[in-house]
Amino acid sequence: MPTHGSISMLVASLWLLNAVLGTGGQLAFKAAAGDPAAGNGLARWKYMVQRPWLWFGIGCYVIEFMVWIAFLSLVPLSQGVLLGSINIVAIMIAGRFLFGEKLTRLRVLGIALVALGVAIVGVAG
Fold it and tell me: pLDDT (tens digit, 0 to 9) for every residue of the chain, 125 residues total?
């Protein structure tokens, strides 16, 4: 019979893995879609299908789906969805460093509020 500590560690591990996979998937899709050599319209899609970033992103999402189901089997849906929103923070910060996307004051405030909400839900359990 699993102990409460081992379940908590499993939940934390699944949550972290979900965040890494979701963030990795979004960043891979951005890398695939943001390539200026891709062209426009159907040519863009043909180009992206041949890029490894697209397939890496799809792979991340397939695995994330399984991790998400496992995570939700251990926590209430309302808590799980709120904890899952940490991906928004990770994606915005990674987008800044990897793709030079702007972080305005309003976006930074949004990141802080989402992170605070996730922390409150995580601590409150």
Answer: 456 667 689 999 999 999 999 999 999 999 988 877 777 888 888 888 889 999 999 999 999 999 999 999 999 988 888 888 888 889 999 999 999 999 999 999 988 998 888 888 777 76
Give the single-character DSSP code of 40. S
Helices (H) and strands (E) in the chain, counts: 6, 0
Angle, helix 4-33 to helix 41-49, in steps of 10 degrees: 130
Per-residue tokens: 105:
């004051």
Answer yes or no: are the C-beta atoms of 61 and 83 closer than 8 Å: no
In this structure, what are the phi and psi dihedrals at residue 2, rounded to the nearest 5 degrees? -65, 145
Dihedral sign for Cα 117, 73, 22, 44, please. Answer: negative
pTM of the model: 0.82
Q: How far is CA 14 from CA 35, 40, 64, 74, in A?
A: 32, 38, 9, 10
